[in-house]
Protein backbone atom coordinates (compact mmCIF):
# COMPACT_ATOMS: atom_id res chain seq x y z
CA UNK A 1 0.00 0.00 0.00
CA UNK A 2 1.53 3.40 -0.92
CA UNK A 3 2.33 5.94 1.81
CA UNK A 4 -0.22 8.53 0.71
CA UNK A 5 -3.19 6.14 0.76
CA UNK A 6 -5.07 5.82 4.03
CA UNK A 7 -6.95 2.87 5.38
CA UNK A 8 -10.73 3.27 4.94
CA UNK A 9 -11.44 2.65 8.64
CA UNK A 10 -9.06 5.41 9.87
CA UNK A 11 -10.72 8.84 9.99
CA UNK A 12 -8.80 11.58 8.21
CA UNK A 13 -9.11 15.32 7.79
CA UNK A 14 -7.20 18.32 6.51
CA UNK A 15 -3.81 18.80 8.18
CA UNK A 16 -4.99 21.74 10.34
CA UNK A 17 -8.14 20.01 11.63
CA UNK A 18 -8.45 17.00 13.90
CA UNK A 19 -9.92 13.93 12.30
CA UNK A 20 -13.63 13.36 12.90
CA UNK A 21 -14.08 11.55 16.20
CA UNK A 22 -10.56 12.41 17.39
CA UNK A 23 -10.13 14.14 20.77
CA UNK A 24 -8.48 17.51 20.53
CA UNK A 25 -5.71 18.51 22.96
CA UNK A 26 -7.86 21.47 24.04
CA UNK A 27 -10.69 19.17 25.10
CA UNK A 28 -8.28 17.01 27.07
CA UNK A 29 -6.84 20.10 28.81
CA UNK A 30 -10.31 21.44 29.60
CA UNK A 31 -11.31 18.06 31.03
CA UNK A 32 -8.17 18.00 33.19
CA UNK A 33 -8.87 21.53 34.51
CA UNK A 34 -12.48 20.66 35.32
CA UNK A 35 -11.41 17.48 37.12
CA UNK A 36 -8.77 19.38 39.11
CA UNK A 37 -11.29 22.05 40.08
CA UNK A 38 -13.86 19.42 41.10
CA UNK A 39 -11.28 17.52 43.16
CA UNK A 40 -10.23 20.74 44.91
CA UNK A 41 -13.82 21.82 45.62
CA UNK A 42 -15.20 18.41 46.61
CA UNK A 43 -12.21 16.73 48.30
CA UNK A 44 -9.43 19.11 49.31
CA UNK A 45 -11.42 22.06 50.67
CA UNK A 46 -13.74 19.90 52.84
CA UNK A 47 -10.69 18.07 54.19
CA UNK A 48 -9.06 21.40 55.06
CA UNK A 49 -12.25 22.53 56.83
CA UNK A 50 -11.92 19.56 59.20
CA UNK A 51 -8.52 20.72 60.49
CA UNK A 52 -9.06 22.05 64.05
CA UNK A 53 -7.27 25.39 63.52
CA UNK A 54 -9.25 26.15 60.38
CA UNK A 55 -12.49 24.98 62.02
CA UNK A 56 -11.84 27.45 64.89
CA UNK A 57 -11.18 30.26 62.42
CA UNK A 58 -14.44 29.50 60.56
CA UNK A 59 -16.37 29.44 63.86
CA UNK A 60 -14.81 32.77 64.91
CA UNK A 61 -15.76 34.40 61.61
CA UNK A 62 -19.32 33.07 61.83
CA UNK A 63 -19.62 34.33 65.44
CA UNK A 64 -18.55 37.82 64.30
CA UNK A 65 -21.00 37.85 61.40
CA UNK A 66 -18.40 37.60 58.63
CA UNK A 67 -20.13 36.45 55.47
CA UNK A 68 -17.57 34.72 53.22
CA UNK A 69 -19.82 35.21 50.20
CA UNK A 70 -19.91 39.00 50.62
CA UNK A 71 -18.19 40.78 47.77
CA UNK A 72 -17.15 43.75 49.88
CA UNK A 73 -16.63 44.21 53.61
CA UNK A 74 -19.26 46.96 53.48
CA UNK A 75 -21.87 44.24 52.82
CA UNK A 76 -21.24 42.62 56.21
CA UNK A 77 -23.92 43.07 58.90
CA UNK A 78 -21.32 44.32 61.43
CA UNK A 79 -19.99 47.05 59.11
CA UNK A 80 -22.28 49.93 60.23
CA UNK A 81 -21.19 49.41 63.85
CA UNK A 82 -17.52 49.28 62.82
CA UNK A 83 -17.89 52.45 60.73
CA UNK A 84 -19.44 54.27 63.71
CA UNK A 85 -16.58 53.19 65.99
CA UNK A 86 -13.96 54.31 63.45
CA UNK A 87 -15.72 57.64 63.01
CA UNK A 88 -15.85 58.19 66.79
CA UNK A 89 -12.14 57.42 67.08
CA UNK A 90 -11.30 59.78 64.20
CA UNK A 91 -13.33 62.58 65.82
CA UNK A 92 -11.57 62.18 69.16
CA UNK A 93 -8.09 61.70 67.62
CA UNK A 94 -7.86 62.65 63.92
CA UNK A 95 -4.34 61.21 63.57
CA UNK A 96 -5.31 57.83 65.09
CA UNK A 97 -5.21 55.96 61.78
CA UNK A 98 -2.52 58.05 60.13
CA UNK A 99 -5.05 59.52 57.69
CA UNK A 100 -5.20 63.16 56.69
CA UNK A 101 -7.57 65.27 58.73
CA UNK A 102 -10.99 65.82 57.19
CA UNK A 103 -12.22 69.38 56.87
CA UNK A 104 -14.90 70.12 59.44
CA UNK A 105 -18.35 70.98 58.08
CA UNK A 106 -19.62 74.48 58.81
Main sheet attributes: strand count, strand direction, barrel closure: none
Overall SS class: mainly alpha
**Mean pLDDT across residues:** 79
Question: Which runs of at least 5 residues are low in confidence (pLDDT < 50)?
Answer: none
Report strand %: under 5%
DSSP summary: helix tally? 3
What Rg is obtained from the alpha carbons, in whole angstroms?
A: 30 Å
Task: Compile the SSE list and pairings.
Blueprint: H1 25-49, H2 52-63, H3 79-92
Task: Briefly summarize what is shown.
The chain is 48% helix and 0% strand. The protein contains three helices and no strands.
Q: Could you explain the architecture of this structure?
A:
The termini are far apart. It contains 3 helices and no strands. The protein is 48% helix and 0% strand. The chain is mainly α and 106 residues long.
Features of this protein?
single chain, 106 residues, mainly alpha, 3 helices, 0% strand
Amino acid sequence: MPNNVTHPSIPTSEPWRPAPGARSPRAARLTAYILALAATWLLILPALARIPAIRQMIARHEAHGVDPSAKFYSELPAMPMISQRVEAIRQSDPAAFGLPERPRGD
